[in-house]
Every structure is written in C-alpha cells, then in structure tokens.
Sequence to fold (106 residues):
Amino acid sequence: MDRSKEKPINIVRDIALDHLQTVMKMMDVEDTEENREDIMAFALNRLPQKYVTSGGGKLYAEMINNFRVQYETDVLTSLTRAAMQVKNKPRARGAEVGTVREADCG
Fold:
C-alpha cells in the first residue's frame, strides 16, 4: 500500500471548524477573520491533538464518527470558552495573529 499520499488530519480541528460558526452565533461574537482565528487558536491550544490518515472507506468513516462522539463535547466547551474570551477582549482589527495574551486566556 502506498502511504505516501495519505495526509494526517487533525480530527479535533475538523470538529472545531464544524462548530465554530454556530458557537460564535450562540455567543453573539462578531464574525470577523480575527475572531475566528483567535477562537480556534484558543480552543485548539487547550485540546488534545488527534491525527488520523485519510484511508477512506467504511473503516475510516467509523473511526471519524467514534472520534466525533468522544471529543465533540470537549471541543464545544473549549470553543465556548474561547468565544467568551474573544468577545470580552477582542483583538484589534489588523493586529498580528497571536496577540491574544495567554494571561488573559485563564
């Protein structure tokens, strides 16, 4: 089997991206690129990374579903905390990514 074409996928990141817009709307956070980046960075820095390769087929689909069930609550909790932080202390537009201070991230 040629594994050179398989790329690792961070399933936790994919779950977070799937829920980002919903959480931002629920928390009434302005939908800007800066806010999306900061929320994702804040949330993902507090979650474990879970990588899989895109093997395809039924086994891959089952594995993805198992990860989603296992990690979705943790991802939603982390995204919600991140959204609250960004809403309370948003980064100035045009400021560099990473300017959300760790001390502010509790």
Summary: The beta strands are 8-10, 51-53.
